[in-house]
Amino acid sequence: MNAPLAVTGRHFHRGYALPVSVGDQPPEPAHADAPRFIVAIAHAGAATLMLDGQRLLWNAPAALLLDERTRPTFDQTQGLAVRSVYFDPAIVNSAFSAATLRQTVFDGTALQDFYLLQPLLAADPARRVLRLSPSQAQHLERLLARIADEAETQRDDNWPCRTRSWLFELLFSLRAADHAATLALPARTDRLDEALLRVHACYQSRFTVAELARWCGSNRTTLNDHFRKLTGASVRDYVIRLRIDTAATLLRDTLLPVTEIMARVGYENPSHFTRTFRQLTGLTPSAYRARHGWM
């Protein structure tokens, strides 16, 4: 296996092995002693491949989602350029292993984390090839770069949690893309349909519903009506829930400071963040971490 199995601490947490790595190659064969899930993003070119007995086309921009057992056999490639992240599912939640993911009925916060891995465990091989819009692909490539950069620079004691946090954001984005792919959209989609994907790509940034409507070539009323049909919520309510859900994941699954998590999900005012978080979860961020954190 050419891609490393783990990133090893050099200065902070010296010798600690974090089982995640990023490589610029198509998915490599499974490693029996070190099971790895893979998210591979094709950003150029195309390939035909066999996956669990099905012949599939993987053409950019698209993701290939693989559990620790499933690996493609490539038939033909044409200008294929790929970036992949390999990770042990245990870094998402310590309750996860190759065996427990298939034999355990999870509940509570473990169930919420399991939700992030479901696209990589799809029974239908065709679901493992996920078409991406150009903006989705760019967003995922930026997250892969963040994972690789944090693992390489290891700038402080929080480098393992921060590396994992970028992986969480990648999995969140893939889950949203997978969900969008299953929606009953019309045969010809337009920017109104892409608004959901754009929200997931920029929810950490400050933007107004009016600005999003202008990007869609629409107005606030039409955009909110369309958004409710897709998600059951207005744009504003959906963004707030997305920010708080992401913050909750980072609080329970990492040890990053609350202030860093707050900024990561788009909040500048600690009082506003705490108030909103408590409204949706019933707990302050610190109390939520104390009750649900597993690290």
From TrEMBL:
Q: Which Pfam families match?
A: HTH_18
Q: Where is the HTH araC/xylS-type domain?
A: 193-291
Q: Which UniProt keywords apply?
A: DNA-binding, Transcription, Transcription regulation
Tree of life domain: Bacteria
Where would one find the signal peptide in this protein? none
Protein biosynthesis as a keyword of this entry, yes or no, is no
Q: Which GO terms describe its molecular function?
A: DNA-binding transcription factor activity; sequence-specific DNA binding
UniProt-listed PANTHER family:
HTH-TYPE TRANSCRIPTIONAL ACTIVATOR RHAS-RELATED
The protein depicted here goes by the name Helix-turn-helix transcriptional regulator
